[in-house]
Amino acid sequence: MTSTSTRRQAVLFLVLTATLWSTSGLWIKVISWSPLAILGGRSLVAMIVMWVYLRKPNFRVTGLQLLGAVCYVLTQVSFVWATKLTTAANAIFLQYASPVYVVILGYFFLKERPHKSDWVAMGVIFSGLFLFFGDQLSLDGFWGNILAIVSGMTFSVVMLIMRGQRDNSPANIIFIGNIIGLLVGMPFVLKETINLPNLGIILYLGTFQIGLSFILYSIAVRHVRALESNLILTLEPILNPVWVFLVIGERPGPLALIGSALVIGAVTYRAYVSASTPEFEAAHG
Q1: CA contacts within 13 A on the Cβ side of 241
Q2: Other beta carbons less than 10 A from residue 156's beta carbon
Q3: Handedness of CA 60, 66, 68, 74 (dihedral sign)
Q4: CA distance 40 to 184
Q5: What is the pLDDT of residue 62?
Q6: How confident is the model at residue 176 (pLDDT cuts 50, 70, 90)?
Q7: Euclidean distance between the first and final Cα of the chain, in Å?
Q8: C or N: which end of the chain has fewer Cβ atoms within 10 Å?
Q9: Is 31 helix (H, G, I), strand (E, B) or coil?
Q10: Cα radius of gyration rounded to whole Å, the chain
């Protein structure tokens, strides 16, 4: 059984993970590289970061780890292309339907049952996200919307497999995923302009937004159920435009502010429940 203090640390790591993930939108707006070049460049840097963390990566890859790694790459690629083919709001909103998939798949494959607090948090979070992105959501961009849904599904599979591998090395899945991302994206990197600003952004994205964030997540997922972690990570789409506002000056509307308050409140509630409940009670209560 995981102690309450360990779960508090895990929740803190999840909040830090969401914060680091949320910075991608700003820097991807700034960098001039193509989506697949960004995938290849940051995968190279993240692979090195994961190598240092793992020290001796395990290259005896299981089928489950390979599935998780492939879904990790598919999540990134499908989300990037979704934002090209539909609105950014549609892409984020549909990707963060992932708690629904986690509830269904987590029950069957991990035997992790959702609790009343999960349902309450999920309902408030979806309401908040709808308000936050409501005036930007559209029925346009059919294939982009489909790709965003696929991104949410593959994202949930990554989370579930990493949770299922909690007694082994969840981070190994991301290490393998970055090798695949490097192989897919490197030919596109070679076509791009490698100047100091672009290089600095790729180094940041690979080191912190992907590398460090997934190290923190791989530690946290050992002690927090897949659905709990997924709900806490919905801070990401709310924080993403905050950085854009602070740097570029894009100001959210009043409904978006109400929506963000709902999401932050629900995530805070879910995080508090997670942090104050021992793992055994969280899994069986």
Answers
A1: 16
A2: 26
A3: positive
A4: 7
A5: 86
A6: very high
A7: 13
A8: N
A9: coil
A10: 18
